[in-house]
């Protein structure tokens, strides 16, 4: 029996020590759980006291207003309003403060937002009037309501402070509180680090911080009741088990691991001791029988040697295994360090891209709250990051755009459609509206569940303006080409129908008109071809030595007949002996011809056009000056833009391309063009070109 017991002794020792270790580990775990619950209860008291203290401070302001009323005569509206505004400005969370007379009719109201909120205040007050009657007539003390809907201000509650002169009621002061703003200021996110906090009004949860914290099981949470002037609020605080707790301990796990290890080692020690004692007995027996059993002794020595060899082999194998384990551990540490470094570099690259991107970048929670915004979005909309973060995106969008974004984001989060480009509009801080293009992508957690949206926002004002210009250009092109072609067709039909009846002079006049309209069409086509060459960078110049005075004379002679027909005086004031310039004669002819033709179009009858040339500081200047209506000063900076036509030329035919092409041709010659204009007196265009060296 004793021999059988000693055989199982290592197992009994090991199992006994493991059982003791498990008991100790269980006791430590229970103690740590109790500590967590106790600390959670302490945090409940902290949050409860903080909430009551800060609520008392706000209600005390209303009570002081009521007691000041009770101690003297009724204050004037201005005095009451000043004191109400003082409370609104000093304490966050207020929506409005109002006074109702003894008949419980609302008279005075001051809102923290604007005067337009008075109608909503009246509506909320009449909804809660029955509660107010009970508070004043039965309790005659400060009372509060359950959480109610404040309209556009969201959810909130009302606090009533009755005013009594003796037993006579002088009315009641009502404080309207916005729930989220009030509780966000009283219970900040870091009030109890490592814990989640929630408030309930009855079964309804009215507040939670952090907003993403999950509600726990009852084993970990601690509840408390907050009596808010007759309204019981339930407070729940729980440790966030996914976050490290400041009072958590790894002692139970250490004790468990150490105890099991010790039990195994002790069991092995007992086993080895038993084996050693057995071997000692065998050696003693061999010694006693040495003379008679030499063969047995040699066999025993051989067995011992074999055992030693096996032990050495096991030790060698174990040493090799430990070395390999150390190498693997070092490789794992190196790999983790590299992964952490790559993660930091990736985060730095993302942060650099986020901060330096010219496009706007913002992230949204699933319910549309802006959680982050980059400087590019600040520049685009004029709102600061502080203005945008924490707000719903619909605050910064017109209603139609807000509805479109809400529907698209709902579909993205529900997986009904994949993210794509969205065109919408946004409010600028200065009140303007900017067209935007949004490229959205979903943010997901490790399990692939959507946690929000990341949006890249681009200002497409320039593109919209270009699209509008393109539409205007096509309409103008259609009109400008169809008009002269219609005239050509009309005169052609007239010549065919009445050609034999017309005099030679009438026929010549009709043919001249046909030629002018055909020339107009050619000029339009030439303008559009030159525009295409300028925009594509295919404008080719064939430069040579050019005499500017000769060129000006040729251009002037081309328009002398038209000037004479319009009774416009065409004067030439050319400085003699000007040095030549280097340029393309055809291109310069087009520049000067366009300027002179524009002067003819805008100069009224009996007006005057002066074509002049001069030299100044190594430059040659060609000028065309008219006595037309002039150009408003605010239109001069945009005069050379594509498709741009001045306000004084809306009733005069043209494409808005002539001056754009003129400027491109002058700059291609290394020159510049200047404009000086006086309204109702005339305009001067000067082309300034370098002298040929």
Question: What does this entry look like structurally?
Answer:
It is flat, with a radius of gyration of 47 Å. The longest helix is centred in the first third of the chain and has 63 residues, at 9-71. The model has no long low-confidence stretch (mean pLDDT 79). Strand 5 (155-165) and strand 6 (168-178) form a beta hairpin. Among the domains are: 73-182, 2-Layer Sandwich (Beta-Lactamase); 357-458, Beta-Lactamase (2-Layer Sandwich), CATH 3.30.450.20; 465-524; 539-690, Histidine kinase-like ATPase, C-terminal domain (Heat Shock Protein 90). It is an alpha+beta fold. It has 16 helices and 22 strands. Strands 1, 2, 3, 4, 5 and 6 form a 6-stranded antiparallel sheet that branches. A 5-stranded antiparallel sheet has the order 12-11-15-14-13, sandwiched between helices.
Tell me the number of helical segments per DSSP (H or I, 4 or more residues long). 16
What about the largest sheet?
6 strands, antiparallel
Annotated CATH homologous superfamily of the domain at 539-690? Histidine kinase-like ATPase, C-terminal domain
- The number of distinct β-strands equals 22
Shape: flat
CATH class of the domain at 539-690: Alpha Beta
* Residues in helix, %: 40-55%
Derived from helix and strand composition plus strand pairing, the structural class reads: alpha+beta
In whole angstroms, the N-to-C terminal distance is: 127 Å
* CATH architectural type of the domain at 539-690: 2-Layer Sandwich
Q: pLDDT below 50 for ≥5 consecutive residues: which ranges?
A: none
Relative strand content? 15-25%
**Overall residue-averaged pLDDT value:** 79
Alpha-carbon Rg, integer: 47 Å
The CATH topology of the domain at 539-690 is given as Heat Shock Protein 90
